[in-house]
Specification:
By secondary structure, the chain is of the alpha/beta class. It has helices at 41-45, 50-56, 71-76, 92-100, 124-127, 133-139, 142-158, 192-208, 238-241, 247-254, 279-289, 304-308, 313-323, 335-352, 357-371, and strands spanning 59-63, 80-84, 110-113, 115-117, 120-121, 163-164, 212-213, 215-218, 259-262, 295-300, 327-329.
């Protein structure tokens, strides 16, 4: 089993992605340039410039109708691309193929989007309309949810998308999503056992379809009274989360989920910082307590909760990497400018000693492992 997948004794392991359907407009992945002889990716990453390492940790946002606009950032070595919008173009796969062809050394970025179902769907016109998580839980078995997610994942892959920022594992039964509740119908259920079973089934289905699932929002946003995209907000107290909201994430990690998104909420009793910037949350709980070895991604560092804590995207990025995150998300009016300022901030932090090069190499190691990039010849 790959190093990134942890199998628990009480939950089925998420299987290896199976090849999804392809279209003539999406060519095979380019084989990365390799070093003739080395001891693994870590040895090669030690030779990379800090700038090149920094680029891999950044996910560049773009409207799905204009993916070509970020060609220069992909050519610089961006580690990921996130698609926004609600109506994907029919030739999205061809456009993405042209974009990814610009990636240096053939190390392509993840292409990700939020295709959860219900209120959050970026490409339903290509994937098919999906019910909300809450409706799925109320009307479908876990097996049916897995089958639906497999179908959606295969359609996403056929159109060039390789990662889905879903499922939501938060526990909630209130109206929303809204400015006062980030979850609402995005949550499968307030009942932990339902949310856990159906959320894991959704993640497994995406994997069956060839797309990487990302569970969110760790350690659990359910029942918060504010949407961190808009304002600062706390989760439930840490003592409460450990007994309920954290447990679906624990089960998903035991089942082998490969990637986790960390929330921007504070966690009373654990950290006064946004969780995405907190070493207590990422290193202490996610890595050390839960033994998660996969990819750790932040929620958007452009969120109101991050700004309220006094951070810009570049300064929050450095804090997130120091805390143990591997990849960062953001939105901006000036995407090229914010991307380059963020990369410069990472480089400056390494130069000053605020961020160790070893931590940056560790982050990129997680990214390349999930991309299945081998920088060494067999």
């Amino acid at each position: 089993m790959p190093a990134l997948l942890l199998a628990g004794c009480n939950s089925p392991a998420i299987p290896e992605p199976t090849p999804g359907p392809t279209t003539a407009s999406v060519p095979p992945t380019t084989t990365p340039v390799v070093t003739p002889s080395c001891d693994g990716n870590a040895a090669v990453l030690a030779t990379w410039s800090v700038t090149r390492l920094a680029e891999q940790t950044v996910v560049v946002p773009v409207d799905e109708t204009d993916v070509g606009s970020i060609g220069a950032l992909v050519a610089d070595g961006a580690g990921g691309v996130i698609l926004f919008g609600s109506q994907a173009p029919a030739d999205l796969g061809a456009q993405l193929a042209a974009l990814l062809a610009q990636a240096p050394d053939g190390i392509e970025p993840f292409v990700m989007t939020d295709q959860e179902g219900g209120a959050v769907q970026r490409m339903a016109n290509l994937v098919g309309d999906m019910p909300s998580a809450r409706t799925m839980a109320a009307t479908m078995s876990a097996e049916q949810i897995r089958a639906l997610a497999k179908q959606a994942g295969a359609a996403m892959l056929a159109n060039g998308v390789t990662m889905d920022l879903a499922p939501v594992l938060d526990l909630d039964d209130r109206p929303g999503p809204s400015d006062t509740n980030p979850d609402g119908t995005r949550s499968f259920s307030k009942d932990r056992t339902v949310a856990q079973a159906d959320g894991i089934a959704f993640a497994q289905g995406l994997t069956d379809g060839g797309v990487i699932p990302v569970v969110k929002h760790f350690p659990g946003l359910g029942s918060t009274t504010g949407n961190t995209d808009v304002v600062a907000a706390p989760t439930l107290p840490w003592s409460t989360l450990q007994q309920d909201g954290l447990l679906p994430f624990t089960a998903a990690i035991e089942a082998g989920v490969p990637a986790v998104m960390v929330a921007n909420a504070t966690v009373p009793g654990l950290t006064t910082s946004p969780a995405s910037l907190s070493p207590e949350v990422i290193t202490g709980v996610l890595r050390q307590q839960l033994h998660f070895t996969g990819l750790v991604m932040t929620d958007s560092l452009s969120g109101g909760a991050i700004e309220s804590a006094g951070y810009s995207v570049p300064t929050a990025t450095v804090a997130a990497l120091v805390a143990g995150a591997d990849m960062i998300l953001f939105t901006a009016n000036d995407v090229p400018g914010t991307t380059r300022q963020t990369v410069q901030a990472i480089v400056g932090a390494v130069d000053s000693g605020a961020l160790s090069r070893a931590r940056l190499e560790d982050a990129v190691g997680h990214i390349l492992a999930l991309k299945k990039v081998n920088l060494c010849r067999p």
